[in-house]
Amino acid sequence: MSQLNAIETEGLTKRFGDLVAVDDIDLTAREGTVLGVLGPNGAGKTTMVRMLATLSEPTAGTGRVGGFDIVRDAARVRSLIGLTGQFAGVDELLTGEENLLFIGRLLGVSRRQSRERARELLAQFNLSDAADKAVKAYSGGMRRRLDLAASLVGRPRILFLDEPTTGLDPRARGELWDMVRGLVNDGTTVLLTTQYLEEADQLADDIVVIDHGKVIATGTPRQLKAKIGGQTLRMQPDDPDAVGQVRSLVAEGFPELDPVVENGTVTVGVNDDTVMPALASMLRTRGIPLSEFHLGLSSLDEVFLTLTGRRAEPEEPEAADATEEER
Ligand SMILES: Nc1ncnc2c1ncn2[C@@H]1O[C@H](COP(=O)(O)OP(=O)(O)O)[C@@H](O)[C@H]1O
Ligand SMILES: [Mg+2]
Questions:
Q1: In angstroms, what is the span from residue 21 Cα to ligand 1's centroid?
Q2: How confident is the model at residue 90 (pLDDT cuts 50, 70, 90)?
Q3: Residues with CB under 6 A from ligand 1
Q4: How far apart are the C-alpha atoms of 149 and 120, rounded to whole Å?
Q5: Lowest mean pLDDT among 7-16, 143-152, 291-300
Q6: Any idea what DSSP says for residue 95?
Q7: Span 303-307, mean pLDDT?
Q8: Ligand nearest to the CA of 50
Q9: Which residue intervals of the chain are DSSP H helices?
């Protein structure tokens, strides 16, 4: 175990009956950095986080958090971490402040210190005005901030954030990103799962892309974007039969790119501003009219399309027959 790795897994695996939800995953998060785990619904993100947070035992493989084994030293691991779930774990009927106080008391902190810590966190997360309101009256963004505050009561060195911004509007998302950056500046190590490439790009020092429980790509945001293109160019010819021509044209002009043909559209990841105008002029010269010619930020969907040649699939509901034994 390197001193510098806050989180490390080797061959980490979780089976639910026949389903391998987390399949032989190796990853590391360096101390004081953000590791982004990027994957679609059902990729195995929550299952992995639950194992690292000692809420569920691996079927095979090992994991270390803060240097401690997630199975043998589970209690030590728990003392180091904070966990924010995809579904907020705060009590709806209590006020924001009561929730934080309650957690402080659970952690064995004195009443006075719990109150001080609660007030400090409420202020840090812009919730002081709502401190005495029941959480059921909070907006989605306020709830996520409270959820994040709740995970910080014990001042964890290592924080797991499982899809912290799913369902938030862009403003609330941006606010949460700033808060995560602040924590990392103070030395916290964060493992963040997300379905959004942009979020991983904004926050992560390193990214692990997972699909069907397996790692399918790793790298810094720059390396990944260089590989897949930070933006996606979509070209749909008026004449669906011309799609092959469009594809060959891309291959001719830009042999380093890897165009994918799907539903009468050619999609290609690009990270160079000159590609779009060059292709526009090539298409015009060849006389291939397009009904769509669109350059957009790559979504996770497009990352997947580029990495795997297929789209990220929605979660398959039939996989839920096996049940997890809780500890
Ligand atoms: N307790 C469980 N019992 C059976 N299957 C499960 C259980 N938890 C998760 N799964 C399955 O494992 C896979 C990964 O799920 P999950 O880790 O929740 O993915 P993600 O968080 O990336 O959306 C899914 O196919 C899901 O249905
Ligand atoms: Mg999940």
A1: 6
A2: confident
A3: 16, 19, 21, 39, 41-47, 319-320, 322-324
A4: 10
A5: 291-300
A6: B
A7: 76
A8: 1
A9: 45-52, 74-80, 96-106, 111-124, 140-151, 170-185, 197-203, 221-228, 243-253, 275-286, 300-308
> Which tokens belong to 197?
């490439």
Residue minimizing CA distance to atom 24 of ligand 1: 42
Cα pseudo-dihedral 214, 51, 79, 64, rounded to 10? -50
HEC secondary structure over 9-63: EEEEEEEECCEEEEEEEEEEEECCCEEEEECCCCCCHHHHHHHHCCCCCCCEEEE
Residue 182's pLDDT band (cuts 50, 70, 90): very high
pLDDT of residue 82: 86
Q: Measure 1 CA to ligand 1 centroid, in angstroms.
A: 29
Domains along the sequence of the chain with CATH? 5-220 (3.40.50.300), 231-297 (3.30.70.790)
Classify residue 257 by its DSSP letter. Answer: -
User: Going by DSSP bridges, is the β-strand pair 265-270/231-237 parallel, antiparallel, or unpaired?
Assistant: antiparallel
Contact (Cβ atoms closer than 8 angstroms) between residue 163 and residue 176: no
What is the rounded distance in angstroms from the CA atom of residue 249 to the CA atom of residue 282?
8
R_g of the chain, CA atoms, integer Å: 23
